Amino acid sequence: MSIKVFADGANIDGMLDMYHNGNVQGFTTNPSLMKLGGVTDYRAFAHEVLQKISDMPVSFEVFADDTASMEREAREISSWADNVYVKIPAVTTDGASTSSLVHKLSQDGIKINVTTLFTPEQNHEFIDAVSATTPSIISIFAGRIADTGVNPIPIVKDAVEYAAPKKNCEILWASTRELLNIFQAEDCGCQIITVTNNILAKRKNIGKDLFEYSCDTVRGFNKDIQSLGFHILP
Predict the structure, then answer these.
(1) Residue 173 in contact with residue 192, Cβ under 8 Å?
(2) Each residue's pLDDT tens digit, 79-138
(3) Can 87 be counted among the known catalytic residues?
């Protein structure tokens, strides 16, 4: 498998487990995951991660909702370590594009991970915005697109093709929902996919015989029946 797998989470123990086991090639975080992980001090959390993970890309997101403040935060985050990518949302809460800021930061040599991308138009806009020489990531929320009933695969394939001339611009399949998405993302030509630890744990099932999986599932149901003491007939 040639696609790079980035662990998506904000639990330091889980991140280090994936790092030391060699299961991933990078890490991403976001404010929602930090809330879920119980992070109370963003800077302290980030510095702890970067002290222990220095040889893989790690993405940290800005918190501000206006581009002037985003820029100050982005420059601060970028200064924390050489392996840091700064996550910039594609829009502010009022729907204003951040592509001008992304262009400015990328031209200044700051590695950017553009996040919350959903539409082909957004993808093209931000692929155009990033520098051809500075490494960048375009994170397409394929899982959330699929949640609307729209097939994300044509959108992702289009972005991969559009970004091809910029060799330092990588397309990332985000909001992964199931293990199959890793294979779908690779088929689309994505360079990266973000995967949560609970989905990564399912990689042990790759190549498993489906009939044996059927039997294992029945055995699991039977074990639960026995433990619950359920009866239908008296």
Answers:
(1) yes
(2) 999 999 999 999 999 999 999 999 999 999 999 999 999 999 999 999 999 999 999 999
(3) yes
The answer to whether 195 and 5 have CB atoms below 8 angstroms apart is: yes
Q: Which amino acid makes up residue 112?
A: I
Q: Which helix (H) or strand (E) holds 49?
A: helix 42-52
* Alpha carbon distance 43, 63 (integer Å): 12
Q: Give the span between the Cα atoms of 75 and 101, in whole angstroms.
A: 11
3-state secondary structure of 190: coil
Q: Which tokens go with 102?
A: 């992304």
Enter the pTM of the model: 0.92
Residue whose pair of structure tokens reads 């690779």 in the numeric block: 186
Interval 13-70: pLDDT, tens: 888 888 888 779 999 987 787 887 788 888 898 999 999 999 999 999 999 999 999 9
Whole-angstrom Cα distance, residue 29 to residue 33? 6
Task: For residue 129, give the amino acid letter.
Answer: A
C-alpha distance across the termini of the chain, in Å: 53
Tokens 């039977």 correspond to 222
Please pick, among 35, 87, 204, 208, the residue that the annotation labels catalytic. Answer: 87
